[in-house]
Specification:
single chain; alpha+beta; three-stranded antiparallel beta sheet
Length: 89
């Protein structure tokens, strides 16, 4: 996927501290047309929600920054994934 598409993969190691996105499953949707507002889709066990308010979206952007600050760099992440695949063979 990384070679064929514009995708960045970053792995948060098990040794990382707790971060702002721990336990949540969400997607920040940013449209190609910058005049279209961002939205956040949150998926839960029993329901889902779409947030459109800028203050809520800022909270989720902060959560993503928190995760990225603890994640391995993209190259290190891919190396870790490759090593894990080798170990499983």
């Amino acid at each position: 996927m990384v070679r064929e598409h514009d995708v960045t993969v970053q792995v948060v190691p098990f040794t990382a501290d707790a971060h702002a996105a721990l336990g949540d499953s969400f997607v920040i949707i940013q449209w190609p047309d910058e005049t279209d507002p961002e939205v956040v889709y949150v998926d839960g066990v029993t329901s889902w929600t779409v947030h459109e308010r800028s203050g809520v979206i800022r909270s989720y952007l902060h959560a993503v920054a928190s995760v990225q600050s603890q994640a391995l760099a993209p190259r290190e992440s891919l190396d870790l994934i490759r090593d894990a695949i080798k170990d499983l063979r």
